[in-house]
Amino acid sequence: MPDHRATESFEDALTDTPSRRAFLAYASGALSLVIGGLLAIPLVGFVLAPVFRPRKSRWVQLGHVADLPRGIPTKLVYSYPTTDGWLSKVARGTVYALTEDGKSYTVLSNLCPHAGCGVRWDEQKEYFQCPCHDGRFDRHGKVTGGPPPHGLKEFAHKVEGGSLLVELEEGA
C-alpha cells in the first residue's frame, strides 16, 4: 500500500489548518511561557538589585593623630552603632595606622587577604604576620612572604580637627 503522506506537496501542507488539539497545545504552551516570564521578573530583580544599589559608607573616628608614633604601625580599634531592621548593635573592627612624617598617613586592614585571619605587627621582626599560613607584609602592607595573593587593603582616610577618620563600607 503506497504512503500518500510522502507524496503530499509542500503547498498542501501549508494550507492545512492545525487541529483543535494542536491549537490548544500551542496556546497553553504560550500561556505557560508568559506566566513563567512574569513570575521570573521579581526573581531577576531580586538577584540583580544589589549590583545597582549604591554602596553606603561612613566615616569613623580612629583617634587623634598626635597619639600616633612615627614609623611604627599602630593598632587602632574602632566601633560605631549600626541598625539592621529593628536590631541595634555596635560594630567593631581593627585597623593599623602608620605615619612617617606626621602629615601623611596610611590606614591598613588587619585582615589577611589569603584567608581572612587577623594579622599582627611584630616590632622585633618589623613586619605584619598572619598566624594562619605564615603570610608576611611590610609596614606599608605589601606582601613579603607566604601565600597571600596581594597586600593588605588600604582604607580611604582623612584628618579633621586633629582626628584620623577612616571610610568604612556598611557592614564592614
Walkthrough of the structure:
There is one protein chain. This protein is α+β, with helices and mostly antiparallel strands. It folds into two domains: 43 residues; 113 residues, Rieske Iron-sulfur Protein (3-layer Sandwich). The protein contains two helices and ten strands; from the N terminus they run ααββββββββββ. It has a four-stranded antiparallel beta sheet, with no helix packed on it. A hairpin with a 2-residue loop joins β2 and β3. The longest helix is centred in the first third of the chain and has 33 residues. It is elongated. The termini are far apart.
Short description:
The protein is an alpha+beta fold. The chain has helices at 10-15, 20-52; strands at 57-64, 74-84, 87-99, 105-109, 120-122, 127-129, 136-137, 143-145, 157-160, 163-169.
Q: Could you state the order of secondary-structure elements as H and E?
A: HHEEEEEEEEEE
**CATH fold title of the largest domain:** Rieske Iron-sulfur Protein
Could you give me the name of the CATH homologous superfamily of the largest domain? Rieske [2Fe-2S] iron-sulphur domain
Number of helices: 2
Oligomer: single chain
Report how far apart the termini are: 81 Å
Give the class from helix and strand content and strand pairing: alpha+beta
Strand order within the widest beta sheet? 5-6-7-8
Q: What is the total tally of β strands?
A: 10
Any idea what the CATH architecture of the largest domain is? 3-layer Sandwich
Which CATH class of the largest domain is shown?
Answer: Mainly Beta
